[in-house]
Amino acid sequence: MELEPKENPKQSVSRRDFLKLSAIAGTGITLGAAGMGAIMGIVKPENGKVAALSDDRISLYGQHQAGIITPQQTYMYLASFHLTGNDRSSVIRLFRDWTKFCDLSTAGGTMKTGDNTLLPPNDTGETLDLPAARLTITFGFGPTFFREEGKDRFGIAAKAPRYLKDIPRMPRENLDPSLSGGDVCIQVCAEDQQVAFHAVRNLIRLSTGYATVNWLQEGFISATPGKTPRNLFGFKDGTANSEHDNSAGYDDVVWAGEGEPDWMKGGSYLAYRKIRMLLEVWDRTSLKDQEDTFGRYKESGAAYGRSGEFDAVDMSQQPGSAHVNLAKQTGQRIHRRAYSYTNGIDPRTGNVDAGLLFLSYQKNPETQFIPMLRMMQSKDKLNEYTSHVASALFACPRGLKEGQYIGQNILEG
Ligand code: HEM
Questions:
Q1: Mean pLDDT, to the nearest integer, of 150-176?
Q2: Rounded to whole angstroms, how far apart are CA atoms 298 and 345?
Q3: 405 near 137, Cβ under 8 Å?
């Protein structure tokens, strides 16, 4: 049984190899299969960090969930689910199935096609010949997971994390409730869009009878490796993340801890805003106005008065209403992991419907994200070119240990 190609033992196992392996080993990789990690010889995360299994496999297991401080993959889907049942056992069943699927797909495997030609195949099949493509699947829980309309649906209200509340209403927003919130959120990222879509599609299939999809967003971001990606306004987006890019920085900014229930220690809060960017207006704006909007130079990404992208911001050079100036004035930091989106043409205006799926991770949304959002929504020059259309806050639990299922520490014990 050959799992690794001969020439390069580090090269990843294709999904087809994985299927062959399952047939040879008679393991029956189906939804009911367990311990896929053992079959794949998954490398355990070292030092509590998310371990890269090979060039293109990122472990599902570790102290923290993957997909939070993981360097951004090119494609992202964000799915929000509403749990339809009211009993905890059906939620447990769903999370067990989801976990098995995540274990399998992040390791580059697919479910067994199935021997009964009269039944639909277990797996939808579009990734059979594709590698894992740095697939990560990150779970978060919304306020309604713990309590909906005052009701403790699953008997877990006492385990709610400390800061999980809907993001309060802000000035200048016109939110679409059908694109906001949700009981459970799944962020799926991969270097290959088909791999990412396959994961989200099969997670949706597995939820049949247990959950319905509220909304599904897809995003992309692209950069030369090692360079900061640019958003659809053409500016480098994510530069300031470098200020906390070390384990002490992530502890300060991203990982929840003090005062949180045990399952949330090492987790993080995901703040989501869907922000439409008025590209036609922006594209008619002078370079100076564009640069004044951010307080940074467009080409280099350097802050006003500086020459290097990562040089410290000189606040004395910042225009009063510049985005960076306002963010810095709050004295807070967040970890941004945004993706661009495009969605055809707005039929009402004929303008392109495009923008930013703003995602940020932080340990305390009340002190970090919300004051920043409030400040920006009232004063930011960027508001001339943007409009917020959706919003959500989710609590993402700490990472999984092999053998555990997602949410187990909340749903049991
Ligand atoms: C369409 C909407 C947005 C666009 C196009 C945008 C774009 C940018 C750009 C180009 C930068 C400068 C480079 C960098 O450090 O990444 C930046 C910085 C930043 N943005 Fe945004 N942003 C948007 C929305 C938001 C929102 C909603 C928040 C939070 C409420 C936010 C928080 C920040 C923060 C904290 C920084 C870093 C400031 C610093 O410390 O230097 N942004 N953004």
A1: 96
A2: 26
A3: no
Among residues 142, 144, 163, the alpha carbon closest in space to that of 394 is found at: 142
406 lines ligand 1 (CB under 6 A): no
Decide whether any atom of ligand 1 lies within 6 Å of the 160 Cβ: no
Average predicted confidence (pLDDT) for the chain:
88
Q: CA torsion, points 400, 106, 392, 243, in degrees to nearest 10?
A: 80
End-to-end CA distance of the chain: 41
Sign of CA dihedral 203, 204, 209, 214: positive
CA-CA distance, 3 to 5, in Å (whole number)?
Answer: 7
Of residues 383, 413, 363, 359, the one with CA closest to residue 138: 359
* The residue type at 307: S
Q: pLDDT > 70: what percent of the chain? A: 87
Whether 380 lines ligand 1, by a CB cut-off of 6 Å, is: no
75-83 and 136-141 strand pairing: unpaired
pLDDT at position 114: 81
CA 229 to chain centre: 16
Q: What angle do CA 302, 228, 393 make, to 5 degrees?
A: 105
d(CA 281, CA 278): 6
CA torsion 219-43-125-82 (nearest 10°) is -50
**112: confidence class by pLDDT, cuts 50, 70, 90:** confident
pTM (2 d.p.): 0.89
Closest C-alpha to ligand 1, atom 7: 237
Q: Which of 281, 358, 387 has most ligand 1 atoms within 8 Å of its beta carbon, as the pocket-test mutant?
A: 358
Helices 88-106, 193-206: inter-axial angle, 10-degree rounding: 160
Helix ranges (H only) for 161-211 are 193-206
Going by pLDDT thresholds of 50, 70 and 90, the confidence category of residue 96 is very high
Q: Which of 211, 224, 173, 258 is nearest to 80 (CA)?
A: 211
| Structure letter (DSSP) for residue 12 | P
Q: How far is the CA of 323 from the centre of ligand 1 (A)?
A: 6
Q: Which of 26-30, 80-84, 188-192, 307-311 has the lowest mean pLDDT?
A: 26-30
User: Where are the alpha helices (H) located in 147-300, listed in sequence order?
Assistant: 193-206, 247-253, 279-283, 287-294
